[in-house]
TrEMBL record:
Pfam families: Abhydrolase_1
Organism: Musa troglodytarum (fe'i banana)
InterPro entries recorded: AB_hydrolase_1, AB_hydrolase_fold, Meta-cleavage_hydrolase
Keywords tagged on the record: Hydrolase
Lineage of origin: Eukaryota, Viridiplantae, Streptophyta, Embryophyta, Tracheophyta
Protein name per the record: Alpha/beta hydrolase fold
C-alpha cells in the first residue's frame, strides 16, 4: 500500500526547489551531520568548503533561519513560509538532530547542544548574521542560540515556545492537557494518540482519515528512543531556570491566540520578562500550529517584522509567493491519483462536447480504433466498475480525493468531470441534469463500461438519479449522498435561493454563466416531477 504522507514529500521537495532552495548536508564531526535546505546560490561545494555563490557579496540577502518543532522535520514544518520568504531573504531550513537527515552519535540531547551545533553548521555555510525564527521546541533551541551566539543571531522570532521547559511548567502543561508526560503527547504510539496531539495543537478540530494519520505516524515519528531522550533533557529544575540575557535589539513573539500548549498568558509573561525589546503579536483563531493554521496571516506578520529590521530588503513577491496554493494542491492531488493507478482520459462525444475522466490505467482508451489498452488478458478478471459523480463546488478528483485511494484496489474507479467542471465542456445549449446524465452514459460507453455502480454527491446525485432512471442497463446499483430526485421549486425555496452569487474564481469565469443556467434548469416545477423508475436502489 502507498504511504500517502511519504508519497507527497517528493512533490513538496520539488516545490521547495522551485522556490530556489537546495539540500545540503554539513558534517561537523564524524557521526554528527546536520541536513539543511539552503539558497541555491549559497550551496557549499566540497572543495575547501567554499560557497558556490554567483552573486557579489554586497548583493547577498539577509539570512533567515527557520527552526522547526518536535513533530516534523524542517521543510514539512515551514512548507507555507519558504515560498513567501525566498525572494527577499536567504532562507535556511535545518533539520534538528534525529529529524529529517540530521543525526549525531554524541550522547548530549540538550537544546544547548542543538543550538551550538546549529550555530557551527551555519558558520560552515558562510552565514555570519541572521534572523532566527523558532517554533515550539525549535523556539527553545532558538532562545539558546540567541543567548550563546549573539554575534550570529541578530534578530529573533519565536512562536509557541518558552525560554526553558521547567519541571513546574511541564507539570502544569501536562495537567492542563490531560497527559502524564511530554512523550505521551509528542510521541504518539497510535492513531488515537496522534488525534489527541492534533487536538491540543490546533484551534479548529482537524479531521483526517485514519489511514492518513497512520501513514503520518509511520513517516514522521521515527527515532523515538533518541527523541524521548531529548524530551527528558528538555526539562530542567525551576531553581536552575533564569531569564536569558539576550543582546538582540528586536524580538518578535508571534503567537496563536488559542495556543493550548503554551498559552497566551505564558506569552505575555515572556514579553514582560524580555522588556521593551520584545513585541507580542497575537494571531486570532489559531492554536499552537499558528503557522500552519493561518499561514497567510503568519507570513504577513513575519515579513512585516523582517522588512522592519531589514529595510534594505525590498523587492517584489516571487512566483512562489503569489502561487495559487489551490493549484499547487491540485498538482499534488493529480500526482497522487496517478500513483493510485489512475490516468486522465478525454472522451469526445461530438464536435464541441468533451468529457474529462480519471480512469484506471489499464483501461485507458488508445486513439487507435478506440481500443482499450488493457493489460488484463481475461475479461472475467476485470474489477467491478465504480463511477464517482461530483457535486457543484469542485471537479471530480477534488471532490473524491479521500475515496479514490480507498477503492482502487478492489474496483475500477472512474471519476468524471461533469460539463463545465474540470476539463469537460459542451457547446450544446442544454444544461439539464438529464443531458449531463445522457452525456455521462455515452462517455462511459466509449470507455467500455457496460455495468457499474454510480456514487453521486449533491448535484451529482441528481445526475446519478437521472442516469439510473434513463440507463438501467448501465447502472447496476446506486449510492447517493446529500441529493434529491429533482430540485423542485418548492424544495428550492425551502433550501434557499439556488441562484446565489458564486465566489470569484479566475480559472472558472468562462463557465460561471453556464453553471447559473444549470441551476435554473435544475429547478423543475412540482407538477412536472415524475416518479423514479428503473434501477432499484440498494
Amino acid at each position: 500500500m502507498v504511504n500517502w504522507v511519504e508519497a507527497q514529500k517528493p512533490l513538496l521537495h520539488w516545490l521547495v526547489r522551485r522556490a530556489g532552495l537546495r539540500q545540503q548536508t554539513v558534517e561537523l564531526d564524524p557521526g554528527t551531520v546536520i541536513s539543511f535546505w539552503v539558497p541555491k546560490a549559497n550551496v557549499t561545494t566540497k572543495k575547501k568548503s567554499s560557497v558556490c555563490n554567483s552573486r557579489k557579496e554586497e548583493k547577498n540577502k539577509a539570512a533567515v533561519v527557520l527552526v522547526h518543532g518536535f513533530a516534523t522535520d524542517g521543510i514539512v514544518t515551514w512548507q507555507f513560509q519558504v515560498g513567501s520568504l525566498a525572494d527577499r531573504f536567504d532562507v535556511y531550513v535545518p533539520d534538528l538532530f534525529f529529524f529529517g537527515g540530521s543525526a549525531t552519535n554524541d550522547p548530549d540531547r540538550s537544546p544547548t547542544f542543538q543550538a551550538d551545533c546549529l550555530a557551527a553548521a551555519l558558520g560552515r555555510l558562510g552565514v555570519q548574521r541572521c534572523t532566527v525564527v523558532g517554533f515550539s521546541y525549535g523556539g527553545v533551541v532558538s532562545f539558546k542560540m540567541a543567548e550563546r551566539w549573539p554575534d550570529l543571531v541578530r534578530y529573533l522570532v519565536v512562536s509557541g515556545s518558552t525560554f526553558a521547559m521547567t519541571d513546574s511548567l511541564s507539570s502544569a502543561t501536562h495537567q492542563r492537557l490531560g497527559v502524564s508526560s511530554s512523550a505521551e503527547l509528542l510521541l504518539p504510539e497510535s492513531v488515537e494518540g496522534l488525534k489527541a496531539l492534533l487536538s491540543a495543537a490546533t484551534y479548529k478540530k482537524l479531521w483526517l482519515p485514519d489511514c492518513l494519520l497512520k501513514d503520518f505516524l509511520e513517516v514522521m515519528f521515527t527515532n523515538k528512543k533518541e527523541r524521548a531522550e531529548m524530551l527528558e533533557a528538555l526539562v530542567i529544575s525551576s531553581q536552575e531556570a533564569s531569564v536569558p540575557h539576550l543582546q538582540q535589539e528586536r524580538i518578535l513573539l508571534l503567537w496563536g491566540e488559542n495556543d493550548k500548549i503554551f498559552n497566551l498568558e505564558h506569552a505575555k509573561n515572556i514579553k514582560e520578562q524580555l522588556g521593551e525589546k520584545a513585541t507580542l503579536k497575537i494571531i486570532k483563531k489559531s492554536g499552537h500550529l499558528v503557522h500552519l493554521e493561518r499561514p497567510c496571516v503568519y507570513n504577513k506578520c513575519l515579513k512585516e517584522f523582517l522588512v522592519l529590521v531589514h529595510p534594505e530588503e525590498t523587492g517584489h513577491d516571487t512566483v512562489a509567493e503569489m502561487m495559487n496554493w489551490v493549484e499547487v494542491y491540485k498538482t499534488l492531488l493529480h500526482w497522487l491519483a496517478r500513483r493510485a493507478g489512475l490516468r486522465q482520459q478525454t472522451v469526445e462525444l461530438e464536435s464541441g462536447t468533451i468529457m474529462n475522466f480519471w480512469v484506471p490505467k489499464a483501461n485507458v482508451i488508445t486513439t487507435k480504433k478506440g481500443s482499450a489498452c488493457n493489460s488484463r488478458e481475461k475479461e472475467e478478471k476485470k474489477k467491478p466498475a465504480v463511477v464517482l459523480v461530483h457535486g457543484f463546488g469542485m471537479d471530480g478528483i477534488m471532490t473524491w480525493q479521500f475515496q479514490v485511494g480507498s477503492l482502487v484496489d478492489r474496483y475500477d474507479v472512474y471519476v468524471p468531470d461533469l460539463l463545465f467542471f474540470g476539463g469537460s465542456a459542451t457547446d450544446a445549449p442544454d444544461r439539464s441534469p438529464a443531458y449531463q446524465a445522457d452525456c455521462l452514459a455515452a462517455a462511459l460507453g466509449r470507455l467500455r463500461v457496460r455495468r457499474c455502480t454510480v456514487v453521486g454527491f449533491s448535484y451529482g446525485g441528481v445526475v446519478s438519479f437521472k442516469l439510473a432512471e434513463r440507463w438501467p442497463d448501465l447502472v447496476s446499483s446506486l449510492v447517493v449522498s446529500g441529493a434529491t430526485f429533482a430540485m423542485t421549486d418548492s424544495l428550492s425555496s425551502t433550501s434557499g435561493s439556488a441562484s446565489r452569487r458564486w465566489p470569484s474564481c479566475s480559472s472558472q469565469c468562462l463557465s460561471r454563466e453556464s453553471r447559473h443556467f444549470f441551476l435554473r434548469q435544475l429547478i423543475e416545477s412540482s407538477g412536472s416531477q415524475t416518479a423514479f423508475t428503473g434501477t432499484s436502489l440498494r
